[in-house]
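Sorry to interrupt, but I need a hand with the structure work. Could you write out one complete protein record for me, on any chain you like? Just paste the record in under my message, thanks.

. . .
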Amino acid sequence: MEVLVVGAGVVGLAVGRALARRGHAVIVAEAAEAIGTGISSRSSEVIHAGMYYPAGSLRARHCVEGRRRLYAFCASHGVPHRRCGKLIVATGEAEVATLESILEKGRANGVEGLRLIAGAEARAREPNLACVAALESPETGIVDSHALMLALQGDLEAAGGVLALRTRIDGLGPEGAGWRLRFGEETLAVDAVVNAAGLGAQALARAVEGFPQERVPPLVLAKGNYFGCAARPAFSRLIYPAPVVGGLGTHLTLDLAGRMRFGPDVEWLDTVDPAQVDYAVDPARAASFAAAIRRYWPGLPEGALVPDYAGIRPKLTGPEAPAADFRIEGPAEHGLTGLVHLFGIESPGLTASLSLAEDVADRLEA
């Protein structure tokens, strides 16, 4: 089967790799000049354990399975990573019930090692931490996302797959038992198409002749800002507050050198056009970041926060609605053979990528 995968972020590369390793002829088309320049380049690089998501959801299943696959892949391919663990903290008694709820979800999802610990034990592990209780997640980690994508590209090409950069797909329509794609003045016939275009997934779906337009979900953009920290590292593991609407709270993450950064927050955008997004981080947001951080790290030095970078979450629901699950539209859902759309693949998309890839390959081969 000849398959074209649209999008060379971490999910698109993982899908292309999975299909090529199953013996299919694969092209991964990317509009940009390099791999992973969109959502994948602007994440927190966290390997999530899988305890936040409702049991039975695609997020829960693919996060847990994807995390296990990802650690094995990183170990076998020399991708820099660290299973550093994290603490989700309650800074007041009212938040302890939230931690208990997360613990129940995590256990239902099969997450290993979760444990609710008292504030004294948490502070013994992280002396700079302020909390009354914490949920310990030993399976959480961090990864060099660009090295991961390069390794996925390497496997893709080793299995005979091809990466086509500067290749923007303008539309596609059915042709025989397959699809004909349009890009610029050129066309290409393939047997199957996977839409892993991230922020552009809805636009591409609307450009598919014969695809039911009512099945294209809305795109809601939420900007996540990050701040670096000029202070010396004060923690050895990731620190997360209780979740907030639209995200997991302004948390402390570490890079592989041990440097601290904070974010993302949730800034709902008025535009639904990814091309209109301003990725600059407003320095004025430092005040709200500092207030959130000092709830669990009172010792944050004054003036230590430095604007870093921002990313965009391709959400399917807005601030007034419950968070949507990943949405995978394959032939069983829309009735068109050889076509899979991936919508709303935000966090934990990086963690879930290898599991999502096998799911997509299964759907095309069914």
